[in-house]
Model the fold of this input.
Amino acid sequence: MVSGASYREVFRVPEFRAMWLAELQSVAGDQLARVALSVLVFADTGSAALTGLTYALTFVPSLLGGIFLTGLADRFPRRELIMWVDGLRGCLILLVAIPGMPFWSLCVLVGIVSLLQPVFKSAQLALLPDVLGEGRFATGMAIRSITIQSAQMAGFAGGGLLIALFNPYVVLLLDALTFFGSALLIRTRLQARPAADRAGAAGDTGVRRSWRGSAGESWGLLFADRGMRALVLMLWLMALVAVYEGMAAPYAAVFGGSSVVVGLILAADPFGSVVGAFVFSKLVPEELRPKLLGPLTILAAAPVALCLLRPGLVASIVLFVLAGAFGTIVVMQTTTTMTFMLPDARRGQAIGMSNSGLTTATGVSPLFAGLLADKTDPVEAVGWFGAAGVLAAVALAAMWQRAQREDRRELLKRD
Done:
């Protein structure tokens, strides 16, 4: 791996600045919307399960989007795809912001927005290596993690304050405006590039692969060997770590918290993520980072498991900060490692599928945690998910270590 570039070098790339700013504002808007939806549904129903269901709808349909739609990021020009997806999501959120929208209609609209998220993310992550190159990519990913998590923190915390001052519908309207702003930046600041997925890239026939062929090949690449499987599963495991995000409203209610407290709980994870991404990218040598993935995955799940001890509100927020720090490092490093293990013609779909699995699991985990919380309570439910995460992390750490030993043996044989 090429040695990492400085933050200043990466920000000197005009296209990266545009992509960074576009994603920054749309992510902040998304978090505002998630706070609004959580507070709105919990206030109307008083049910942790329905709150978890609504939160899940901002994630779960991503699985279908990841399976059926992320191939678009390789089949069509990525810049144009990002622009049109953001414009469409803005229109859908405008509909969600209409007061009095029936619950089922809200669920359908939010589900479609979630369905489109993998298309945006796969196109963006596949385009980033073209914009930055290998030497600046890892630093660019670190910048993305730091600033995106900062936007999430501001969106979550600000969402609670805005709801307290206005109402959830105003917050949803702001979310729609951020999508339109993102689309405008991408349209005006990024240069046009051709689609990547043509057989001509490998066989020079100029014919696109079939959807079934490209999807099958992408899934095969993600699970081709023990090392790639470990990376994908470690990435997906971070959904268990983030289960408290979908349970924020009922979790805060245990301690008598208001919508402001819900925002603070949700802001804990991105705050930790900012600190973790910055420290990891600045202090840990690039060649050492993959070796630390196993222990870091365990450390990401452990703080959530400590919720079984029933900590108070302040202690819980501290634990969620730690979980966010280690969890973001794992997501950042697994994605970076996978990106350059994948061919460009399959990169968009494969990365999109892997991230869709993470997004879907992030939505499913609070849904099941909500069902468990209705039988027990939110604090205990979050703790049990953390404990399950620790057990899975230990197994995956062993798998990753075994894969690294095998890779070293292969290199020695070649030498």
